[in-house]
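Thread: Newbie trying to understand structure tokens

Hi all, I'm a second-year student working on a class project, and my supervisor (Dr. K.) asked me to get a predicted structure for one chain before our next meeting. I've only ever worked with sequences, so writing a 3D structure as a token string is new to me. If someone could post the tokens and maybe explain what I'm looking at, I'd be very grateful. Here's the chain:
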Amino acid sequence: MTDTSENAADANVQEKTDAEWREQLTPEEYYVTREHGTEPAFSHPYNNDKTPGRYDCVCCGAALFSSDAKFDSGTGWPSFFQPVSPDAIAEYVDKGFFSTRTETRCARCDAHLGHVFPDGPQPTGLRYCMNGVALSFKPVDEA
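---
Reply by user tm_fold:
Sure, no problem. This is what the structure looks like when written as tokens:
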């Protein structure tokens, strides 16, 4: 795991004011992506969607995950075993909720996406457990 929390000023990060994010996003999208919230389990249609395509960041449109890496984890959130590229996701140590987890954020705009766990399928053994509201979907013919 790479802790990139000190790299927030990276040229790669897209910065907007809080007011700009609130204007662009729905209240639920803002809560999850900008306030590090979590949507309820089994509440988002992407959890069960099997349509071929790509999942992008709802905030900035950066490509994050391919449907080819999506699997049913049974957790209630869309899950993937790898991002589209190693530099698409930034990882941070999250010590909230009385445990230590690895938080995932969009490397371009710093949007909170979810967490990654070491209990996923091969070939990576990872489970990127994402909030569906933090993602936008492009079918394969549009991706």
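A couple of things are worth pointing out once you decode it. The chain has one domain: 5-139. The domain at 5-139 is CATH 2.170.150.20 (Metal Binding Protein, Guanine Nucleotide Exchange Factor; Chain A). Feel free to ask follow-ups in this thread.
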